[in-house]
Design brief:
Blueprint: H1 3-15, H2 19-28, E1 33-34, H3 35-42, H4 46-58, E2 62-67, E3 70-75, H5 78-92
């Protein structure tokens, strides 16, 4: 693998290193949601959620769609759910 791809991969995994971002991605596994819906679901402010969504967007993990005055977010592609699923399988491995 080219050297720069190692750095890119490390940066991608850093994005998964935040509990709030993992919770947002988990909510989006259920389908598209607005910032307000995500904020309500996590008991956080819309401002805090928007900040995390911007980071997730820059990493191409979520995509946005404008609907009137609000913006709806969804997972960018199936790779995101596969990464989350693989991670959960790994941490639950060997548990009763």
């Amino acid at each position: 693998m080219p050297e720069d791809k190692y750095s890119d991969l490390a940066e991608l995994f850093k994005v998964f290193g935040d509990v709030t971002r993992i919770k947002i991605l988990s909510l989006l596994l259920q389908g598209e949601q607005s910032v307000g819906e995500i904020a309500d679901g996590l008991g956080m402010t819309q401002s805090a959620i928007s900040h995390q969504l911007n980071l997730l967007r820059r990493s191409k993990l979520v995509k946005a769609r404008r609907e009137g005055k609000s913006v709806c977010y969804s997972l960018d592609d199936d790779h995101v759910s596969a990464i989350l699923s693989c991670g959960m399988e790994h941490i639950c491995e060997g548990e009763p």
